[in-house]
Predict the structure.
Amino acid sequence: MGRVWGALEPAVVSGPQGSTAFLWDAHIPLSLHRKVTLLVLGLDNAGKTSIIMDLDRGEGVEVLPMAQPAQTRLRVERFEVTLLDLPGAPRSRSAWRSHYSAAHGLLFVLDSSDLARMEEARRVLSRVLSHPDVSGKPLLLLANKQDTASALLPCELIERLSLERLVNENRSPCRIEPCAAKRGPTAGPPRTTLQGLRWLLRTIPAAPAPQPAAASPPGPGPRAARGRREEEEEGEGEEERPGAAKPSRGAGGIRRRG
Ligand SMILES: Nc1nc2c(ncn2[C@@H]2O[C@H](COP(=O)(O)OP(=O)(O)OP(=O)(O)O)[C@@H](O)[C@H]2O)c(=O)[nH]1
Ligand SMILES: [Mg+2]
């Protein structure tokens, strides 16, 4: 089965309300019905579970029998997608990393209206992206709760989260889409959410395959020196990991419409 690999170069994808895509949009796998695992991450109350429930009703999305609790299985185009809904409360975040190695890509959900927790969201996202098992994997950032009056637009969130620096440092292809999961019982997902999901699936490299989940926790280093209590309080904080930070190539950057 052949594969098409594009050159690593910045890409721009435009969308409504300033949605933006950028950085190393490169790989287009041609394999059929490929099984992929996507982690759905974000702070508690961001709307992760709501978005997954919305996706269930998406046009062109077929719901497959569930494998395990907190998993949703969908068929989207040529992909058999397992979405892992991981709780976002601080004490739950330390469990996220046990899923990183098995993940092909990430959906990170933001409550765009929760300005008070934006810095916390930035720290958590930074921590996730710099993990060695995550760096380089594609990221779809869903700027949720756009129906609320105080919601920041994607272009504002890019600044607040220092997103350009984060994705450059970690070489993660990234796209941000505005969305509102809470739209009434019969509504499906916003078009932007589905567009983002399709982009994420297309962007997952065909190889190498993710490694099976590690049986043991990460090796010694600053993280290991921290107590469990501190870990639970801070969740996925901003601490650097050995070997995680990569120098920016200076290429790419965020391009916005208009
Ligand atoms: N206004 C508005 N409310 C939303 C939206 N999406 C989710 N909510 C609400 O936000 C709250 C949290 O949503 P959840 O989907 O449970 O959040 P979560 O990210 O899964 O939270 P945890 O499981 O605790 O990590 C619920 O009351 C939802 O109804 C949205 O787009 N707009
Ligand atoms: Mg939830």
